[in-house]
Amino acid sequence: MELAVHFPNFTLPGGPEALGPALAATARAAEDGGASTFTLMDHWFQMESIGRSEDPMLEGYTSLGFLAGQTSRIRLGLLVTGVTYRHPGLLAKTVTTLDVLSGGRAQLGIGAAWYEREHRGLGVPFPPLGERFERLEETLQIVRQMWSDDDGPFDGEHFRLAETICTPRPISAPAPPILIGGSGERKTLLLVARYADACNLFAPDPSVVAHKLDVLRGHCDAEGRDEAEIEKTIIFNGDPVVDVDGFLSSMAEYAKLGVTKVWVSPFAPDPAAWVTKLCETAGPRLAEL
């Protein structure tokens, strides 16, 4: 199983001046420690499940561009981009730019968006959930078209593009991998089956993940998709450094289900040191699962 590091907390000692060095050091620690992926959130306000909306939050793709220059091997992405935040044509160009400048290390993580407060606060339209899923599917179609040889128009219900030119093309072959975040059985996992290279599931316990993967398998069968083509990933809630053996025992259960990547998050005053410790104590054993 691969280790991925998700960096959600920008409330760190030293104030704004310390954020750049801390973020860079943490990404380098993850890369040096063997983690496969480093991600940030795509929010403008901090999530209230972590802290206060007023707490520090950096814009995601600007931060990933900074990290592309601080690292050389680790894959970079957002976990996950809200479909409401950027026009899909511009999103495709943004991720393409990250992929080109990072040497082919970009990943597009995307979901239907949910944080209404930040939308209302900054004046961004927040359509009803059903419409957000419609926009998500059209966005996936547009991104895939822009990363193909088809630079013609796109005429959808919510988005209309006269041209889908995307030059330069991504370095990732055939394109940056698309990960869809969320566990919704009727819509989210159906979109995974249709469009995604990876899914990202909440993992309260293995039985829940097993059920979600069964649902995904059913969607893949209906769509004529080989379910084995889709990478299965989860988010771990907790601090694995506190109980490394317990963490690894839990991950072994998910590995049996076909999960191949787990995201963990440093909630520590020194996130780089936390990541270094985790990689040293858990990384090699996790890779054996």
Short characterization:
42% of the residues lie in helices and 16% in strands. It is of the alpha/beta class and 289 residues long. Strands 1-2-3-5-8-9-10-11 form an 8-stranded parallel β-barrel, surrounded by 7 helices.
Question: How does this structure look, described?
Answer:
InterPro entries: F420_OxRdatse_Rv1855c_pred, Luciferase-like_dom, Luciferase-like_sf, SsuD_RutA_monooxygenase. Residues 22-234 form the Luciferase-like domain. This protein is of the alpha/beta class. It contains 9 helices and 11 strands. The longest helix has 18 residues, at 129-146. It has an 8-stranded parallel β-barrel with strand order 1-2-3-5-8-9-10-11, surrounded by 7 helices. It has one domain: Luciferase-like domain (TIM Barrel).
Radius of gyration: 18 Å
Order of helix and strand elements from N to C terminus: EHEHEEHEHHEEEHEHEHEH
Query: What is the subunit organization of this protein?
Result: single chain
Tertiary shape = globular
Arrangement of strands in the largest sheet: 1-2-3-5-8-9-10-11
Q: For the report, how would you describe the main beta sheet?
A: 8 strands, parallel, barrel
InterPro entries: F420_OxRdatse_Rv1855c_pred (IPR019952), Luciferase-like_dom (IPR011251), Luciferase-like_sf (IPR036661), SsuD_RutA_monooxygenase (IPR050172)
Pfam family, one: Bac_luciferase
Domain Luciferase-like: 22-234
Keywords: Flavoprotein, FMN, Monooxygenase, Oxidoreductase
